[in-house]
Amino acid sequence: MSDKLTPFFTSTPLPRRTFLRAAGATVATSTLVLAGCSDDDGENTPTTPSTPLLSYTNGVQGITANNVVFNYLYSLHQLTLAFYQAVVAAFPTGMTTAEQAGFTDLRDHELIYTESYKYLLGANAIAPLTFTFATLTLTTRAGVVAAAKKFEDLTVAAYNDVVMRFSTDSTGKDYLLFAGKIASVKARHAAYVRDLEVAGSFAGTDVVTSTGDLAGLGAVLTPSAVITELAPYFTVTVVTSNTAALA
Amino acid sequence: MDLFKIISDIEKVDPEVYDRFDTRRRVFKHISGMGKAVTAATLPGLLGTMFNKAYGQSSNLSTEIVQTLNLALQLEYLEYHYYDTGLKTSGLIPSADIPAITIIRDDELGHINALRAVLGSQAFSPNDPTRAAFDYTAGGKLPDPFANSANFYGTGQAFVDTGVRAYKGGAPSLMSNKAILTAALNIHSVEARHSSHLRLLRRGGVSATADVTNLNAKPKSWISGTDNGGPVPAVTAPVYGAGSDANHPAESNVTQANINVQTSSTAPTGLTITAAAASEAFDEPLDAAAVKAIARNFRSAVGATAGLFN
């Protein structure tokens, strides 16, 4: 790879910074935007969230869109790592030796992803997050596999979306290459855990379109859609609407 | 206060703000309706928004994009006819696996159609290459893949893994057109799902453990090191080996973005990050020249005359 990548946080600011500055990366603005986005409460008064907010701009003035996207991906891998770590620490009943080996690999891969993203993001990196899996059933094989499927499919759909969010210069190309190398491995993960749940469902019609003009293409989900699905597992309220990088 | 007001305000200081959103603009306009409402049922609509823009652009595609997509298209034909022939060979595929192979075959057809929709008249040929354009024994160097399912899945794995690496290698050439880049990398993720499943079948199904001393025959669902050269190293080693230059290392590579991802990762107490895991976590791109060299093994005289993989 090019040697441009290592010091991500010193990258030349993008033209988009004007927007970022205007949109603001502060918690205060985030709160207002979040309230403005809500479509199911009839009131106009912004409400104060009961949990802390997480912004992928990390409050870094002039943070590049590339780094905002990496923070988003970093958070997804933090979540998945925490999940697999919980599984590996206490394998559920009914999980075979082969499956335990598979899940250990998944945990190891996620550890490598989170550490690598953290390292590359440097001063731009969001803090380590905590998660809650209280709504999942981690004591049974079925519960673990169902949750793994959800997390893996969502991450694949997230990667399918972010590839267009990097800048088109040589710096953005380096970010794309790094993320792209992970994207296909995540698809391998997803197919594996899906096959554990239902044999032959590795590319089921709920994740790969089977008819029409889009046949053979996989699911794509925007950051806001992904975070909505994953919100129950975060212990912070994740904001994606305060930056054009994730719009 | 709402998002559209914010964007409107920004437009006053940054008139190009809408251009910056580019293909995301239409998605963005629907943002207030998304969130909780996104389910599997709404996915095709979202996909359509993203990809309609990619289709029918053949008149203004760069030479680089045309070349990259045409190589991908030729690889898709190689794969399509392979699975199609397998499905038409009575008794080859165990009945329990036929639905899976059918899904893979049909996905490849979908990829052919998507690539043709983007390329239009710039496709390498207006006609579909036929089965006769391909020789799936690689000139006799591989056992007949249609003789038994082990052979069939082995060569199939080599094809899908080549495909994943080819799309990844082509991605930088597509960056100037984000809609096409998105479509191509999307296809690449579906190919990776196929690979994962074929690898599972090869090692004996969900209950079987991969054999790290014989990854050739019993691979993991992901590529570990170079998989010891793949199913038949004499032919498939280049599928997992290094490409034509330093930007295309072998699958065993553990240096990403100039960092050694094995040694830079801080493992929790009691845990060791192995080189194997570090290599598995990242798939590597392969350059067009290396991809073509692999693929040319599988064209017949008919395919050579047609100029496939030149």
UniProtKB/TrEMBL annotation, chain A:
Pfam families given in the database record: Ferritin_2
UniProt protein name: Ferritin-like domain-containing protein
Species of provenance: Hymenobacter citatus
Listed PROSITE patterns: TAT (PS51318)
From TrEMBL, chain B:
Superkingdom assignment: Bacteria
Pfam families, per the entry: Ferritin_2
The protein's name: Ferritin-like domain-containing protein
